[in-house]
Amino acid sequence: MISIKSEREIALMREAGKYNIKTFKEVEKYLKPGVTTKYLDKIVHDFIVKNGCVPATLGYEGYPASVCISVNDEVVHGIPGKRVLKNGDIVSLDLVLSYKGYHADATRTYIIGDVPDEVKALVEDTKGAFYAGVSCVKEGARIRDISRAIEDYAHKHGLSVVEELVGHGIGSKMHEEPDVPNFDDNNRTKLKAGMTIAIEPMLNLGSKEVVMADDDWTVKTLDGKPSAHYENTVLVTKDGYEILTGE
Ligand code: MF3
Ligand code: CO
């Protein structure tokens, strides 16, 4: 069953979304060469708590941090630690918080200093793929419309699509039905106004294959080439959508 949110629930998710974006604005101040990923996690944690929200990933199935930080060939679920960001890195921050029991989930990939043009394009095109997908959202559209739009956009830009991880419904739980894949799996489920979903393309510069790192959390590209991730929490409306974690 895919839940339809009430006006009250939607209002709370809007609030959660605003806090999520405020947290990004805060942590962006610290995103410079020389900073450790652990320090960024502390900034995120303290800001979320200060705002009366709950860091949703902390303790989730044993995940030990308030934000997933994935660098270069790390696709998702990197664990903040002693790693120091350096010029030429790309770093994705995947941040989920809840406010009065309702979740907002968003990811941004940042460029640290100078990167080759193809890596810059990877980061920009992953954001573009999100917008290609979200532009299909409205009541009556199917999940596969979103998936296909993302996949087509990625392939047109010479990028591959990670298939092991997918977008998802979101609300009083971080992960709800339905799955929202970034490739066409022929899901004909129709969207209805009041559904809330996280759309999150994870695109690779090289091949789509990924492997699990020794920490049993970090997912990396098999070929060691960079990967980018972009995500927002989105409300389905009668004629379109509202991005709840917008800019
Ligand atoms: N934002 C991630 C997602 O979209 C959640 C991180 S999962 C965790 O599903 F287990 F690491 F918390
Ligand atoms: Co998500």
Question: How would you briefly describe this protein structure?
Answer:
By secondary structure, the protein is of the alpha+beta class.
Description:
The protein is α+β, with helices and mostly antiparallel strands. The chain has a single domain (7-243), classed as Creatinase/methionine aminopeptidase superfamily (Creatine Amidinohydrolase, Alpha-Beta Complex). It is 28% helix and 26% strand. The chain has a five-stranded antiparallel β-sheet with strand order 8-7-9-14-15. Strands 1, 2, 4 and 5 form a four-stranded antiparallel β-sheet that branches. A hairpin with a 6-residue loop joins strand 7 (167-169) and strand 8. The longest helix has 22 residues, at 7-28. The radius of gyration is 17 Å and the shape is globular. The model has no long low-confidence stretch (mean pLDDT 98). Cobalt (II) ion binds at residues 105, 168, 198, 200, 231. 2-amino-4-trifluoromethylsulfanyl-butyric acid (MF3) is lined by residues 57, 60-61, 63, 68, 77, 94, 96, 105, 198, 200.
